[in-house]
What we know:
The structure is a homodimer.
Chain A lengths: L6 E2 L9 H9 L19 H17 L6 E6 L2 H13 L5 E6 L2 H10 L4 E7 L23 E4 L1 E2 L4 E2 L11 E4 L16 E5 L10 E6 L16 H6 L9 H16 L2 H21 L5 E2 L10 E5 L3 H13 L2 E2 L10 E4 L6 H17 L1
Parallel strand pairs in A: 1-13, 3-4, 3-5, 5-8, 8-9
Antiparallel strand pairs in A: 2-10, 6-7, 9-10, 11-12, 12-14
Amino acid sequence: MSNDRVYNFSAGPSMLPLSVLEKAASELTNYRGSGQSVMEMSHRSKLYLSIFEEIKSDFKRIFKVPDTHEILFMQGGATFQFGAVPLNLIGKTGKADYAITGNFSKIACKEATKYGEINVAADSGDRNHTYIPSQSELKLSPDASYFHYCANNTIYGTEWKYVPETNGVPIVCDMSSNIMSKPVDVSKYGIIYAGVQKNMAPAGMAVVVIDKSLAGNELPITPKIMSYKIAIDKDSMDNTPPCYTIYMLGLVLKWLDEQGGTEGMAKIKTKKAGILYDVLDSSRLFIPIADKEARSDMNVTFRTGSDELDAKFVKEATEAGFVNIKGHRLAGGMRASIYNAMPMEGVEKLADFMRAFEKNN
Amino acid sequence: MSNDRVYNFSAGPSMLPLSVLEKAASELTNYRGSGQSVMEMSHRSKLYLSIFEEIKSDFKRIFKVPDTHEILFMQGGATFQFGAVPLNLIGKTGKADYAITGNFSKIACKEATKYGEINVAADSGDRNHTYIPSQSELKLSPDASYFHYCANNTIYGTEWKYVPETNGVPIVCDMSSNIMSKPVDVSKYGIIYAGVQKNMAPAGMAVVVIDKSLAGNELPITPKIMSYKIAIDKDSMDNTPPCYTIYMLGLVLKWLDEQGGTEGMAKIKTKKAGILYDVLDSSRLFIPIADKEARSDMNVTFRTGSDELDAKFVKEATEAGFVNIKGHRLAGGMRASIYNAMPMEGVEKLADFMRAFEKNN
């Protein structure tokens, strides 16, 4: 890879496209002749507002956001949304449904119990979150204020392949680790939120795409910074937004356009994941962690069955320039996070490395 | 100024030292041979943790934080803290005291009323926040869980010159717009918080310096991302922190060291503010907005008495490269925000410009 950069398989924060970083570096001290860095611009200035509007417009176009929905930039990542979602939505009936398919959906569910009555619609913890429940396995409540699930489970390497049918109950989806990797029918969702640090920008923000009709029913105890209504009314600027992180998202959106948008990325990510799953499926050494039908195209999890060999693999991979490939302690083994910015050649070289490791061990 | 940069008098986000921006640009695509941008680093990686620890250590040394206090990096700026402070602290007695000396302390006060009984200890709104109440004017409650004030009022250009005596009631202070401009006796405060976007880093974070003994009493409805206890226990990493914003703070701290720390900055800021207040005090045209004894060394507010002349001043100043100098609509007139990163020559040139404008109008 050019510029002596490593292949960074981190689950997040994670790689950004090199061209995006180079663009950011080139205009860091002086943005396009303005005499200022974007980091220094007043968020109320005409110049920054023009940047902001272009980014919102690009996001709306690329993610195909219908006019019924608003795009919000909020600080605090997904964890902030774990609180904001129930505070804003649960007041309708006092109840909500959660599917637990991994660590973060479990944390989101626990957070919601502070604010209402929570029904666990499914919990894949019985097999350490190696599968995704089917539609028929979801125990949904007709009077839930919303149904919450996490579209891609970073730690275990599983991904929902369908959008649940909830019979009118608004769907809230945490897409932190697979947003912008494929086209999404936004109209099916009440709220989509995503921490930006995996597929969109440096850490420090979440993007929230919300059906505007859901806002305005927050519990009276909702901190104002968590109110979707205020964020919508003030266009994400009731307080100072994370201006530079938004700008970085903007550069990534331009790069996404060059890749063919979400349709283009879907082809690329399917090919990248396929390369690694082919290695796993034809291996006598490596064992995939997730069930085949639930496999994530963003996080490929695997192990050797031996803690010593796992450690040896991680050590030798790191030395070879494949960094942050150790699995999360909850899943063990290894994890190759191959988000949008991971180049094809990074995946191909890792596949070569895995085959060579298998030959030698 | 080098690099064709403008003098940016924005109230925040605001200027960063050019050397800091140049350093950031130089290591943006590849941090010191690591093959990664800081934007891409896993917050759990050894490399990022070593950066993080050095920054905390530099902050502790430069801001003279005693061992009784912890340093937290939290997303959401001061507005987030407006909710977090009462949620974490008001449970002790159910009551808190607030001094209202400007727009943001008013918003902080209003937010706190969601969570307990609020006593307004003082309100300078009777004279449009042009003064700071004296100690004897503060109506403090002996059973308040805490006393909250805002050390510098960005919009009106006033600054507290003393630390209130509260007879044991913990003091919570919003130092968003004057932190790191002078030495602070941190031991006098229960909590100091500051949005970073004025004197410390790009927008997207607040630094919280908290007496650890105050944590652990949050209301049960506190979103986990707002819990000081969790933030302390997890060293600001219960969720992914804004890694790059923290890194930028680190570069600013190194620059602060070069300026002689907070003692050095105090001399510089006193001199800078003095230059502009001397212009105002010797002017037949410009009228200072804040009372003399309450003047802020960070935000110099003034007007001409004529809306037309104010507009003309702003227009001509902007054309001359002094940008964002229009006053906030709540105070009117002009405002020159001269935070730490505003160079002395920017202030000197503005003073020259003001004198020339006076001569010609």
